[in-house]
Design brief:
The protein is mostly helical. 35% of the residues lie in helices and 7% in strands. It has 2 domains: 88 residues, Periplasmic binding protein-like II (D-Maltodextrin-Binding Protein, domain 2); 42 residues, no CATH class. A 3-stranded parallel sheet has the order 2-1-3, covered by helices on one side. The protein has a two-stranded antiparallel ribbon with strand order 4-5. It is globular, with a radius of gyration of 19 Å. The relative contact order is 0.11.
């Protein structure tokens, strides 16, 4: 994370260019400035692309560029467009937040367990003083169908009960 911060600040030992899908108005940029940079200024060499796929194309064409996009743009193994993105760029393994400190990818299990160091929660604030449309939508999000929508978008559903167990396969016993 210290290397990521120095890249974003423009003080890294190599001249890497951070690329975002917009510089001020997107949730990715806001998260990077608020939570990763903790309010420090981004480097003047940061590049604003119009869309997340533009970020991927920019990084693919510029070897000194490093892109910051949401995992939903590269996490779907059933999407041909996303698979084509993965042929153009590499996803960064970052040092995990757990005690082992292994370098890990931003996959659903690592995001859910907050082992991947750059994760953010999706939060909604319900300000209704009565049970109305907002309450109904919140209840929908909590329900099974609402949680499946998050899962399908390769965002980890947060209201389901998951059990993660370590396993070891012994192939010679099969």
């Amino acid at each position: 994370m210290n290397d990521i911060r120095s890249i974003l600040a423009g003080t890294y030992k190599r001249p890497l260019i951070p690329v975002f899908d917009g510089v001020k108005a997107t949730s990715t940029v806001r998260y990077i400035v608020d939570s990763v940079m903790k309010g420090a200024k981004l480097t003047n060499s940061a590049v604003a692309a119009r869309t997340s796929d533009s970020v991927i194309n920019y990084v693919a064409k510029n070897p000194n560029a490093i892109g910051f996009i949401g995992v939903s743009w590269i996490g779907n193994p059933d999407d041909d467009q996303q698979l084509s993105f993965l042929k153009k760029v590499k996803i960064s393994h970052l040092k995990g937040t757990d005690k082992e400190g292994k370098y890990i990818l931003p996959v659903q299990a690592n995001l859910y367990g907050k082992r991947y160091p750059i994760t953010r929660d999706l939060t909604y604030i319900l300000k209704e003083k009565y049970r109305g449309l907002g309450t109904g939508f919140a209840e929908f999000l909590h329900g099974e169908i609402g949680q499946l929508i998050f899962k399908r978008a390769y965002l980890m559903p947060g209201r389901r009960y998951f059990i993660m167990r370590p396993i070891q396969l012994k192939e010679d016993s099969i």
